[in-house]
Every structure is written in C-alpha cells, then in structure tokens.
Required for excision 1-B domain containing
Amino acid sequence: MLAHRQYLQSGPRHDFSRYRSAVHEVTQAFAAASREVLALEAELAGPRAQPLLAGHVRSLQQLEQSRLVTAATLQLMETPELAEQEDPAQTHQLKLKVIKTMEAIGEVLQDLRFDAESAE
C-alpha cells in the first residue's frame, strides 16, 4: 500500500515505472508464499493425513485471495482517474468486505490452531 500511496502522491506526472516495479516485487513475494502454502496443504492432505488441517489452509488461501482482490479494488478506486466517479456506498461495502474477510481469517486461524493442537 505504501507504493500505491507514493504513486498517487507523485502526480500529476505519476511515476508509473516505479510503481509497476514495486507491484512486481510484491507479486513475486506473494507468488512464492502461495507456492509454499500450496505445498503445505498438499503435505497435510497427503503424507501427513490431516485433511481437516489441509482444509483450513485452503480456506485461508481463498480468504487471503478475496482480501487482496478487494484491497486492490479499493486502491484502484483511489486513483485520480476513478476518484471522480467514486461511489461512497460501494467504497463502504468494499471496506466492510475487507473487515469481514479479516474476521473470517481470524476465525479460520483459531480453528487451525485448535485442530493442530488436537492432532498432536
């Protein structure tokens, strides 16, 4: 988000190449983390025979994806080109969606923690 704020503040001649580079770096980091999470899920579903834990990991991955998409949409709505067309009700709904998704992530993490301790 810092890179996005810097991009917006670099106007009126936005420094898009710098922003694109920052987005690329973050995307690469998320892709690497995603691969690790998928490997963990596969390990739990297969050799470790912990399908419940694998399901929690899968749910976390899906919720994180939803949160990221929603946060990216909110960021796009802040760009000067779209800010003029901003719909306050839609912005509010998206912010609520982020909050509810974060709450759901917290619940899944709590379930994962409890089920992991029970599996030991």
